[in-house]
Every structure is written in C-alpha cells, then in structure tokens.
Amino acid sequence: IVDIQEFYFPGGRMQLQNPELAGLNAGLLLDHFRSQALPVYHVRHNFEPGGNIHPYVKPQGNEPVISKDQVNAFNGTNLLELMLRDSVEQLVICGMQTHMCLEAAVRAAKDLGFSCLVASDACATRALQYEEHIIPAKSVHYSTLNTLQGSYARVLSTDAILREFSQSDN
Question: How far is CA 45 from CA 65, 68, 73, 149, 160, in A?
Fold first, then answer.
C-alpha cells in the first residue's frame, strides 16, 4: 500500500481527486490480505504535515511500515529485503499518486522480478499542468494505468482482484 496518507485527502496539503474511494478500496484489499494471513507492507512518504497513514488502511501490529524519501518505494528502503524474507513473488499494489509513487513502485517491482497486479480503483491522483496544458486527473490516472498494463502489471479493479484471490483460496 503506497502512500495512502492524510495529506492527500480533503483538507490536506495535496488533495487528490477521489482519494476516499481509492482509500476505501485499498482497505478492502487490506482486509482480505489480513484475513488470509498474507504479508502486507505499508509505504509512507516522509512528508509533513499530514504524513500519517490514513485510517482507511491503518497498519496493525506486525505489519511493516516503510518510510521513504524518494518516489520509488524500493530506493533507500528495506522493502525488497522484507519481501525476499517473506518469499513474496506476486504483489498487489495500490496507492497514491497513480502517476508518481504508485507507478514508480510498480516499475521497480517488475524490474526486480516480481509479478504485479495494480488495483485500478484503489489508486488516486490529481490534475497536472504541462506548460499551458491542464491534464485532468482522470486522464492522468487512466494514461498511467494504460502505460503499466501489460509490460509492467496486470491492471484490475478491486472487485476483480478479490474474486481472483478468493478463487485461488479454494
């Protein structure tokens, strides 16, 4: 779970479009992983004010929280070490911002040999500006997911991921 932090929500310093829906969907994934005793890793960007992980995905007891200063969650952290220790091969990745830290985590994970699933509706981003052009958040989100689809990850909805994992549990 990448950077689902309070500063991205209403009233925060860097509000995204629809962070509530993304956070709630991430919470559904988190609940499923917890119920199956699967490893969960919380990544947070060292940023204040509002740097706390949002209550929708609040870490519990033994779930590692990886704090980072870079966009890529693996850069300068022990995330890879933790995943190798836990014999992880496939990742389900969600978080904020779709076009930044989420995308960087997916690309890095794939380059490190992990199979990746991205929960398309458990991610959120914001509108961007390039020169005089305003790119709506929805376009930023979908173009990033399209770029990741295939070469770096399978991109599915939260419901599709939960169905897939429920079928594999049987």
Answer: 10, 5, 9, 25, 28
Using CA atoms, how far apart are residues 146 and 51, in angstroms rounded to an integer?
A: 29
Question: Residue with structure tokens 């992980």?
Answer: 53
From residue 125, give the alpha-carbon distance in Å to each of 18, 35, 108.
8, 28, 19
Strand partners, 44: 67
From 158, 138, 163, 161, select the one nearest 22 (Cα to Cα).
Answer: 158
Digit-coded pLDDT (tens) for 62-71: 999 999 999 9
Rg of the chain over CA atoms, in angstroms?
Answer: 15
17's CB contacts (< 8 A; 6+ apart) are 124, 125, 126, 127, 137, 138, 141
Share of the chain above pLDDT 70, in %: 98
Tens-place pLDDT, residues 12-40: 999 999 999 999 999 999 999 999 999 99
